[in-house]
Design goal:
The complex is a heterodimer of chains A (255) and B (314). Chain A contains 10 helices and 10 strands. Chain A is α/β, with parallel strands linked by helices and 255 residues long. In chain A, a hairpin with a 2-residue loop joins strand 4 and strand 5. The longest helix of chain A is centred in the middle third of the chain and has 14 residues. Chain B contains 13 helices and 2 strands, in the order H-H-H-H-H-E-H-H-H-H-E-H-H-H-H. Chain A: Involved in beta-(1-->2)glucan export. Transmembrane domains (TMD) form a pore in the inner membrane and the ATP-binding domain (NBD) is responsible for energy generation.
Chain lengths: 255, 314
C-alpha cells in the first residue's frame, strides 16, 4: 500500500491528570474523506489542534506525505498543504469576504514583504479569492465585510479560506456547527463536491452528514480510537453503539 | 470619483491650512504661530508613526517617545562631537532608531496585550535613565544643539520658513508611505494580525516577523521626528523620552482616530492647540483638558475622524 497522506502514530496529549489524546493512531489515504466522530469531550478538537500545530503532543508523531511535522509551527504546516477550518468561526471580521480569502491565497503566492504595491489590485490574488468564493457559492457577497454576514455564510467563507491555500489535506472542525437544516444540506452537498479534489479530515457531530460523506470513520471516546472502518462497519460495531448510548465505562475497558 | 464627505473636507482644509501657514505668519508678522506649528507638525509626524503600529498593527506601544529621544540625541551628540552635517546626522538617527526598534521589538513582541504595553513602557523608561546618565552630553540637564543640521546649502534649517516646510514635507512623505504600506501585501498581513492572529497563523503567516518589521518601520519614522525636534528646539534632554510624552502621543492618535491616515495629524493639531490655548487661560489647564479628552473618547468612538464620519451620515 502506498504511503498514506496523513499518518498519526501513538499520539498522546495530557491536560493535568486527563489524557485528552490517548495513543491515537490513524491513517488518512490520499483522496479519502476520513471522519472523526465521538461524544462531547472525546478529545476531537484536541486531536485536530495537534494536527494543525496549535497544540504540541507529549509523545507520538504526525507525518504529512511522509514528512514528520509533529513539531512544526502552524504556518509551516500550512505551506506544506494542510489547511483547516475552525469549529468556532475564526475570520478577520473587519475585512471583506474577498480580503479574507485573498490573504489565504497571498500566503501561498510569494513573499508578503512587499510594501508599496496595492495588494487589492493584484489580479492573481483577487481571481483566486473570487474562484474560491464562487466554489462555496458566495461570490455575490465578495465585497461585504465579514461582520455583516450571517453565521451560515461565515461557515462557507471558512471553507473558501481553506480552499484558497490549495491544500492537499483539509481539516474541517465541525463545519456544520450551528447551521440550520437547509444550510447543513447545502454544506453536505458542497463537501461532496470538494472531496473529489482534496483529501479531507472531517470532525463532525451531525451523524447523517458523516455517514453520507465518509469513506472511513474513526470513533474517538475518552481520547482513544475505539473503532475505525467504513460506515457500514461502524454502524454495526457494538462498542460504538454502547458509546453513543452513554455506557462509556464498558468502552474504556477496551484498548 | 468618491463622494464628498465631511471628514474629507475637514482634512483637506486642515492640510491646506498647514501648507499656507507660513504665508499668514509672514503677512501678519506673527512669528510665534510658525514656531508653534513647526512643533505641531513634528509631533504629528511622531503620532502618525505610532498610529502605524497602534492603529493599523494593533500593537499598543507605550514607549514611542523613546525614538524622539534617540533621533534627537543622534543629532545632538554628533553636533557636540563636531559632526554637523545633516547628511550624516539624519541617517544615524534613523539607523539608531531601527536598531533600538529591532531589539526592543524582538523582546516585546513575545508578549501580548497589557504585557506588551508594560514592556514597551519599561524599555522606554530605561532609555530615559540611560540618557539621564550621559554626563558627557548633559545628563539630566540635557544638551544644547548650538548649530542646526547642515545640509550644505540645499536647505537652511535656521530659516524658520524653510525648516517648517522641511518638517511638513517629511510629514507628508511619511503619510504617503503609510498609505502605501497599509494597502500593500505587507500592510494587509499586519492588519490581519491585528484582527485575528490565530487565523493568520493558520493560513500560513508567521506573525512575529511581520509585526517586528512594522515595529521597526514605525520606530524609524518617529526617529526622524526626533531629529527634527532637536533642530526645532536647539536642545535635547531626557525629558522628551519620559513616559508622559509617550502618553501624549497615544492621546493624539486616539483623539484623532486610530487606524485612519490623517487622524493622528488632526489629533496632534487639536491636542497641542488646546494645550496652548488652555494653558494661557489658566495654570490648571489640565483640569479642563482631562475631562474634554474623556468626553471625546467616551462619545466619539473613532476619535475626531469617527465623529466627522458620523456627521456625514447623520
Amino acid at each position: 500500500m502506498a504511503e498514506p497522506l496523513l499518518r498519526v502514530e501513538k499520539l498522546v496529549r495530557r491536560f493535568g491528570g486527563i489524557t485528552a489524546t490517548d495513543n491515537v493512531s490513524l491513517d488518512v489515504a490520499s483522496g479519502e474523506l476520513h471522519a472523526i466522530i465521538g461524544p462531547n469531550g472525546a478529545g476531537k478538537t484536541t486531536l485536530i489542534s495537534q494536527l494543525t500545530g496549535h497544540l504540541e503532543p507529549h509523545s507520538g508523531s504526525v507525518s504529512l506525505g511522509g514528512r514528520d511535522i509533529t513539531y512544526l509551527p502552524a504556518y509551516r504546516r500550512c505551506a506544506l498543504g494542510l489547511a483547516r477550518s475552525f469549529q468556532i468561526t475564526s475570520l478577520l471580521l473587519d475585512f471583506t469576504a474577498a480580503d479574507n480569502v485573498a490573504l489565504a491565497a497571498q500566503a501561498h503566492a510569494g513573499t508578503s514583504f512587499r510594501f508599496f504595491a496595492n495588494a487589492r489590485k493584484e489580479k492573481g490574488l483577487r481571481d483566486a479569492a473570487h474562484a474560491a468564493l464562487d466554489r462555496v457559492g458566495l461570490l455575490h457577497r465578495a465585497d461585504v465585510v465579514v461582520s455583516r454576514l450571517s453565521h451560515g455564510e461565515r461557515r462557507q467563507i471558512e471553507l473558501a479560506v481553506a480552499l484558497a491555500s490549495k491544500p492537499k489535506l483539509l481539516l474541517l472542525d465541525e463545519p456544520m456547527a450551528g447551521l440550520g437544516v437547509t444550510e447543513s444540506q447545502g454544506m453536505v452537498k458542497l463537501l461532496q463536491e470538494l472531496r473529489k479534489e482534496v483529501s479531507i479530515v472531517l470532525v463532525e457531530h451531525d451523524m447523517p452528514a458523516v455517514f453520507a460523506l465518509a469513506d472511513r470513520i474513526s470513533v474517538l471516546v475518552y481520547g482513544r480510537v475505539i473503532a475505525s472502518g467504513d460506515p457500514a462497519e461502524i454502524r454495526a460495531n457494538e462498542d460504538v453503539k454502547r458509546a453513543y448510548l452513554g455506557d462509556q465505562h464498558v468502552v474504556t475497558h477496551h484498548g | 470619483m468618491k463622494a464628498f464627505t465631511v471628514s474629507k473636507a475637514v482634512t483637506a482644509l486642515m492640510l491646506a491650512g498647514l501648507v499656507l501657514l507660513p504665508l499668514y505668519s509672514q503677512a501678519s508678522g506673527n512669528i510665534f504661530i510658525l514656531t508653534l506649528f513647526t512643533r505641531i507638525v513634528i509631533l504629528a509626524l511622531a503620532a502618525a508613526s505610532l498610529n502605524l503600529i497602534m492603529g493599523f498593527g494593533g500593537m499598543m506601544s507605550f514607549g514611542h517617545a523613546a525614538y524622539l529621544g534617540i533621533g534627537g540625541y543622534a543629532v545632538g551628540m554628533l553636533a557636540q562631537e563636531g559632526v554637523g552635517s545633516g547628511f550624516i546626522q539624519f541617517p544615524v538617527a534613523l539607523a539608531a532608531s531601527a536598531i533600538y526598534g529591532l531589539v526592543i521589538g524582538a523582546l516585546s513582541l513575545r508578549t501580548r496585550g497589557v504585557y506588551f504595553i508594560m514592556i514597551t513602557l519599561a524599555f522606554a523608561q530605561m532609555a530615559y535613565y540611560v540618557a539621564s546618565g550621559l554626563a558627557r552630553y548633559g545628563g539630566d540637564d540635557g544638551l544644547t544643539v548650538y548649530k542646526r543640521s547642515d545640509f550644505s546649502g540645499l536647505i537652511n534649517l535656521s530659516n524658520r520658513t524653510q525648516f517648517y516646510y522641511l518638517c511638513l514635507a517629511c510629514l507628508f512623505a511619511v503619510i504617503f508611505l503609510i498609505w502605501r504600506i497599509v494597502n500593500s501585501r505587507f500592510g494587509l498581513v499586519v492588519q490581519g494580525l491585528r484582527s485575528n492572529e490565530q487565523r493568520m497563523q493558520a493560513i500560513g503567516f508567521p506573525a512575529k516577523r511581520y509585526q517586528l518589521v512594522c515595529f521597526v518601520i514605525s520606530g524609524m519614522m518617529c526617529g526622524l521626528a526626533g531629529a527634527l525636534l532637536a533642530n526645532n528646539t536647539d536642545f535635547i534632554s531626557p525629558a522628551v523620552m519620559y513616559w508622559t510624552r509617550s502618553g501624549d502621543l497615544m492621546v493624539m492618535v486616539i483623539l484623532g482616530g486610530m487606524g485612519t491616515l490623517f487622524g493622528p495629524v488632526m489629533g496632534a493639531v487639536v491636542y497641542l492647540l488646546l494645550e496652548e490655548f488652555l494653558s494661557q487661560l489658566t495654570e490648571y489647564w489640565a483640569l479642563i483638558m482631562g475631562p474634554l479628552l474623556l468626553l471625546i473618547v467616551l462619545f466619539g468612538r473613532g476619535g475626531i475622524m469617527g465623529l466627522l464620519g458620523r456627521l456625514n451620515r447623520g
